[in-house]
Structures are given as C-alpha cells and as structure tokens.
Amino acid sequence: MLLIGLNVAGAQETYRFAQRDTCDLYLDVFRPAEGSQTQLDGIPKPTILFVFGGGFIQGERSGKWERMWYRRLNDNGYAVVSVDYRLGMKGYKVKKGLAGALKAVDRFLLSQQVGVEDVYDAVAFLAANRESIGIDTDNIVLAGSSAGAIISLAAEYGIVNGKAQGLPEGFNFKGVMSFAGAVISTTGAPHFEKAPCPVLLLHGTADQAVQYNRLNVGGKGLWGSSWLVKDWQKKGYGNYCIYRFKDSSHDVAAYMNYLWDIEKAFLEQNVIQGHARCIDAVVDDASLPRWGQLSMDDIYAKEK
Q: CA 40 to CA 84: how far, in whole Å?
C-alpha cells in the first residue's frame, strides 16, 4: 500500500492502487464530515465509489465539479472514494457520424473493459487494505458519469454474469448509480443472467452522446438506460429506478449536484433499507440547467 499524501484538495488520503505499463492509478478518499450521521436506523451508510466521465479520453477522479458532490455526500454521512482508470480512447481516431462511432465500437468495448478491470482492482485494493484504510468493501455503491457510468453498469454486468475477476469471493455492489450510462457489446444485446443489484438510472431522452435507448448494427453497439429497463422488465427484475429527463441531452451526466432528493431516496430506501422500489418516471423540469447538445462528434473532434 502506498499513501501518496494530500495532493487533491479535500481528500484525506490518496493511494496508488495499481501500476500499469502505461501509468499508475490512484484513488482519493473523502471521509464523512465530522458530526454527520453515518448510519440510518442503525445501518451503516455505504461508501460511494465514483468513476468520472470524459468519453474515455479525458477527465479526472476528483475535479472541482465532482468535489462539490462529494462534499454533499460527506455532509450527509457518506464516505466517497474516487478512482482513476485507463483512458482507452485517448489518441484514437473516431470518424464522424454514427457510422464512425459504430466502426470504432471494438475500441469502445476495449475502453469499457479496461475501465472495469481498473474499478475491480480498486475494490480489491480497498479490500486488501480494509483495516488500515477503513473502507467496508461489503458496503459500496458504484456511481459513474458518462463513460464512468458505462464502466459502472458494465462492472455490475460482469459480476452478475460471473465474469468478474480479481474481486473478493461473493462480492457485489450494494447499488449502482448511472448518470447517462449504457453497456457496450460486440456480441449482441447485453444479457443479464440474473437480477443486478439496485440500480439508479438517470438519462436524457435526447442524449446524442450516450444513447438513451440503443445504437447497434450487426450485434455491435451500445445499449442505453431505456433498453436495459425494458429487458429487466421482461425478466421480472424489479429493483431499479429510472428517471427519464424529457428532451434533455447529455447534460444529465453532470446532474449529480442537482438531483440530491432522487439520489438520497435511492440510497436510503433501495440500498440501506433494502426496499425493492421500482420507479419509472419522466422528468420535465425547466429549472434544471441545459448546456447544449453534445454529440459524439463533439467529444472526439480533438482526437481526429
């Protein structure tokens, strides 16, 4: 275990959890605020393990915007761990349009896979150093934004399908929170062999960066929040909450600081109290910010 020190504003500790051929990977630990309530009805609140967004080409584990959300969570008694992962699309050329995105789907899949591997390694590191770091790895909610949400959903997909490697035996997350996420596949539609842990899905219905429903050709593509819920409904999986933001774009990926009531209800009721709440809601809220449409061409313009 390598403690790096206080090199990120607000983080109590920073640790190197993995060494790759191309980079070292770090995680930051943000503890609950002093005096905050770290239990609900005598049940410990989970740690939130956060995976940042950025199209697999950029982003940082504890940026200023993210730290605002961490502070909210800390003030409400939740510890936060933010993690690095390898940026699999960095430097890769994605041609314009949907055809370009589909042509690059194998590389997108690789980016998802290495991100999942890095998240699993972060969990394994926390488990191996449970006593010294003090994070209960039996009580973790995985959360992600955009590319981080894709990684988060894919990480749970790997667990329920028995394809997770390096995790403690019998491990599963207590919940997943996905801000504009999806699952990438090159072998047809994702098939959840059993029910996932409680999942909170938040997605704009007009998202052009991460598809709200699906984008696929010949079994290769991306299956978004709306499609996943349809599949879970058919299978009778009933412990999820989906909020469909009417006509919203990829803005929803950055809504962490605006949706505390929704997040709090999910964490307290679905996760901590263990209620199998199934909510399917359309949100049409003009008070939420809109920063303009973001397409895949916009994200990868600098990579061409």
A: 30
Which pair of tokens denotes residue 90? 């960095």
The strand pairing partners of 16, in sequence order, are: 2, 26
Look up residue 226 and give its two tokens. 């709306």
What are the residue ranges spanned by the domains of the chain? 2-303
Q: Are 256 and 145 in contact (CB under 8 A)?
A: yes
Instruction: Give the C-alpha distances (Å, rounded to integers) separating 291 from 252, 254, 273.
Output: 10, 10, 36
The CATH number of the domain covering residues in 2-303? 3.40.50.1820
Q: Write down the pLDDT at residue 295.
A: 79
**What tens digit of pLDDT does each residue of 101-146 get?**
778 999 999 999 999 999 999 999 999 999 999 999 999 999 999 9
User: Which of these, 60, 38, 34, lies nearest to 48 by C-alpha position?
Assistant: 38
Q: Give which of 160, 208, 203 is closest to 181, Cα–Cα.
A: 203
CA distance 265 to 38: 16
3-class secondary structure, 204: strand
Residues 6+ apart with CB under 8 A from 36: 74, 75, 76, 77
